Amino acid sequence: MNMATKVETAVEESIDDVPLYEARRKIYPIAVHGTFRRIKWTLLIVTLGIYYLLPFVRWDRGPNAPSQAVLVDLANGRFYFFFIEIWPQEIYYVTGLLILAALVLFLMNAVAGRVWCGYLCPQTVWTDLFQAIERMVEGDPRQRREKLKNASRGQRAFEAAAKHFLWLMVAWWTGGAWVLYFADAPTLVWQLFTGTAPLVAYAWIGILTFTTYVLAGHMREQVCTYMCPWPRIQAALTDEYAFNVTYRYDRGEPRGSLKKTEALKREGLPAGDCVDCRQCVAACPTGVDIRLGAQLACVQCGLCIDACDTVMAKVGRPAGLIAYDTEMNVERRQQGLPPVTKVLRARTVLYAGLILLVGGIMVASLATRGSEGVAVIHDRNPLFVQLSDGAIRNAYTLRIVNKQPQPRRFAIAVDGVPEARLEIAGGISQAENGQPVVEVGPDQTYELRVLVSTHAKLPAEASLPVTFRITDVAGGETSSAPDHFKGP
Amino acid sequence: MADTNAHGAHKHDVDAVSGVATTGHEWDGIRELNNPLPRWWLWTFYACIVWAVIYWIVYPAWPLVTGYTSGVLGWKSREAIQVQLADLRTQRAAFADKLQAASLEEIEASPELLAFARAQGRAAFGDNCAPCHGAGAAGSRGYPNLNDDDWLWGGSLEQVQQTILHGIRSTDADAHVGDMPAFGRDAMLQRPEIVAAADYVRSLSGLPVPQGVTPDLAKGKDVFEANCAACHGPDGKGNPELGAPNLTDGIWLYGSSRDNVIASVTNGRAGIMPAWAGRLDPTTIKALTVYVHALGGGR
Ligand code: SF4
Ligand code: SF4
């Protein structure tokens, strides 16, 4: 009577039958045409285009900084992203970015299922590209089966070689683009072709060529089904209002061939819209039968929707037997209720709120961070020395950071020590207005030893809080760092 | 044929529960299943054996009575470290050459060279000087604190370098020499004279007089002027030429208590610092000089 229970039993039985170790079935999906395929092609071109070409985008930062828009400069410890420059001590921005990425993933999932898996994940995108190449060279699954019977050994070997060659070329290009993010791209390309690039560049290209070739060419859906943690997490994040690729069994069952179902319908007997042509299964890149319900291996790429819609158009039935739908709506339709859409739910609001909060904090701190900084370390041994005239002196190491692309001069001062005398070890400072001044080069960190002494009588067991302050002589920007002054 | 299974064992050897062949071994009715090793594991194991055999052919491997098998590559860890050290020298050459060419003053005035010299000097200090002067150069009784502004043999860059090169009362011909005589032990002064001199010296820097002591400052002054002023100066301000410390300041290498000062006058003091010329190369000594000088700003 109830279609849902029937389907559920079928799923349970099939789970019982699954052995603990499942031998790999090779999957050769058929080509499909339709809305989701077009969206996937577009996203593939956009994402791969960004990945392959972004290193060549230039961004002028003046004469003392690299002019590559996106660059991870490991040697100098800098990360450049257009107008943003991140220093190693600001790694928390990367943490923030990761938190943001996770939250966006949660939100996408709460709204429309595994959008990431189906359309954007590199594993999916590259697998899709590799499968397209495979179909281009060896033909679709039907042609393949025919060739297996009829074509000559030589032709099959040639086609296999061509396929693997093309795969390796894509894989090699993928690895090649990766290393371009770590050095000036045009220079590195030239070096790579003239054989003068650093060894580590070749090594990384080799490693990534290998991983791309293996992951996208050979392992494919196995990565999603067995290796990736996301499907497991995703299952815990979805709910009855989330849009997922859904087979509307309320409309499709009982399934049967076109002839049979038409005959049943004429007699007024129950007959579903599914003609059991198995095109949805043939189109699926992970080999899933979506008609069994939502399942772990389904990456929700929507290709079965296109496949089924094509069939439905041919047999003159309405499209959307497989569609983005919510669990709630399937149930409501069965009860004869109109479908509801509820995007504003506790979890979506919460995720969106958190995204705004984390993003806001990051933008605010990026916008207000200074372009200079100072850090101070007190000498540990000795903590203080007594001078010949009885004064007490503490030594500190000051690290001054200049994040601007031009040299700057900073005046150094200390607050909190009565009658303080401040000296810089070595002959590297000039005195201006009674304050020592040092020059810090463009985009550099500068370390100096600072001696602070006082004749003042210090309280017993003194540990006075002090503040070191640097001030840009020209611009007046200041930055400060706290420490202590110790006495006997 | 029908009663053999995939493992080639006879049917009666197959365990009924698991369906796996047994090895035929039995202990009190417990039989051992014959689950072969996974293929990949076995091949990894064989590869390790092959690797080991190749390793002992090409690398030093087996100990012998008086030596060891040296391997066909002739690799030696000592040579490897020498190559690495040579590499390090080449890497540092750019800076090391500049350091060698620059004068001490030039080094201190250039931020780049100062940073390099201080880094190299800190390492050399830790290796060579820290046993006496301490890791942070804070010194201890008899070993001067190099962070303060009191320099027995002078605190200019040249004077510090001179001290490091030739040492103090060392075996080096150019070493600093200068003796604080043992006035008491060698019977040059009587005990009351020594006590009076000590009290006088302590009064120069205003050190507190211990309870129950009435110093005879006039007598002490006489003794001081007759015996001590030659080196320490008539006003007791010391003389870095002779390593004679300033007795009017707040820094006392051997302690400032009355007993300490009496002991110093009675037995004399002659701390020794080794000469480093010949033991450390000139560039390292330069770096060390700059490092020590920049510790307390020198004088
Ligand atoms: S079942 Fe459909 S949506 Fe899921 S992976 Fe297969 S084709 Fe994509
Ligand atoms: S493609 Fe559509 S009609 Fe064909 S088997 Fe799948 S669900 Fe049924």
UniProtKB/TrEMBL annotation, chain A:
<feature type="transmembrane region" description="Helical">
    <location>
        <begin position="41"/>
        <end position="59"/>
    </location>
</feature>
<keyword id="KW-1133">Transmembrane helix</keyword>
<dbReference type="Pfam" id="PF12801">
    <property type="entry name" value="Fer4_5"/>
</dbReference>
<feature type="transmembrane region" description="Helical">
    <location>
        <begin position="349"/>
        <end position="367"/>
    </location>
</feature>
<feature type="transmembrane region" description="Helical">
    <location>
        <begin position="165"/>
        <end position="183"/>
    </location>
</feature>
<keyword id="KW-0408">Iron</keyword>
<keyword id="KW-0249">Electron transport</keyword>
<feature type="domain" description="4Fe-4S ferredoxin-type">
    <location>
        <begin position="265"/>
        <end position="295"/>
    </location>
</feature>
<protein>
    <submittedName>
        <fullName>Cytochrome c oxidase accessory protein CcoG</fullName>
    </submittedName>
</protein>
<dbReference type="InterPro" id="IPR014116">
    <property type="entry name" value="Cyt_c_oxidase_cbb3_FixG"/>
</dbReference>
<keyword id="KW-0479">Metal-binding</keyword>
<dbReference type="InterPro" id="IPR017900">
    <property type="entry name" value="4Fe4S_Fe_S_CS"/>
</dbReference>
<dbReference type="InterPro" id="IPR032879">
    <property type="entry name" value="FixG_C"/>
</dbReference>
<keyword id="KW-0472">Membrane</keyword>
<dbReference type="Pfam" id="PF13746">
    <property type="entry name" value="Fer4_18"/>
</dbReference>
<dbReference type="InterPro" id="IPR013783">
    <property type="entry name" value="Ig-like_fold"/>
</dbReference>
<dbReference type="InterPro" id="IPR051684">
    <property type="entry name" value="Electron_Trans/Redox"/>
</dbReference>
<keyword id="KW-0004">4Fe-4S</keyword>
<feature type="transmembrane region" description="Helical">
    <location>
        <begin position="91"/>
        <end position="112"/>
    </location>
</feature>
<keyword id="KW-0813">Transport</keyword>
<keyword id="KW-0411">Iron-sulfur</keyword>
<keyword id="KW-0812">Transmembrane</keyword>
UniProtKB/TrEMBL annotation, chain B:
<feature type="domain" description="Cytochrome c">
    <location>
        <begin position="215"/>
        <end position="296"/>
    </location>
</feature>
<dbReference type="InterPro" id="IPR032858">
    <property type="entry name" value="CcoP_N"/>
</dbReference>
<keyword id="KW-0349">Heme</keyword>
<comment type="function">
    <text>C-type cytochrome. Part of the cbb3-type cytochrome c oxidase complex. FixP subunit is required for transferring electrons from donor cytochrome c via its heme groups to FixO subunit. From there, electrons are shuttled to the catalytic binuclear center of FixN subunit where oxygen reduction takes place. The complex also functions as a proton pump.</text>
</comment>
<keyword id="KW-0560">Oxidoreductase</keyword>
<comment type="pathway">
    <text>Energy metabolism; oxidative phosphorylation.</text>
</comment>
<feature type="transmembrane region" description="Helical">
    <location>
        <begin position="40"/>
        <end position="58"/>
    </location>
</feature>
<keyword id="KW-0375">Hydrogen ion transport</keyword>
<dbReference type="Pfam" id="PF14715">
    <property type="entry name" value="FixP_N"/>
</dbReference>
<keyword id="KW-0813">Transport</keyword>
<keyword id="KW-0997">Cell inner membrane</keyword>
<dbReference type="InterPro" id="IPR009056">
    <property type="entry name" value="Cyt_c-like_dom"/>
</dbReference>
<keyword id="KW-0677">Repeat</keyword>
<keyword id="KW-1003">Cell membrane</keyword>
<keyword id="KW-0479">Metal-binding</keyword>
<keyword id="KW-0249">Electron transport</keyword>
<comment type="similarity">
    <text>Belongs to the CcoP / FixP family.</text>
</comment>
<dbReference type="InterPro" id="IPR050597">
    <property type="entry name" value="Cytochrome_c_Oxidase_Subunit"/>
</dbReference>
<keyword id="KW-0408">Iron</keyword>
<feature type="domain" description="Cytochrome c">
    <location>
        <begin position="116"/>
        <end position="205"/>
    </location>
</feature>
<protein>
    <recommendedName>
        <fullName>Cbb3-type cytochrome c oxidase subunit</fullName>
    </recommendedName>
</protein>
<comment type="subunit">
    <text>Component of the cbb3-type cytochrome c oxidase at least composed of FixN, FixO, FixQ and FixP.</text>
</comment>
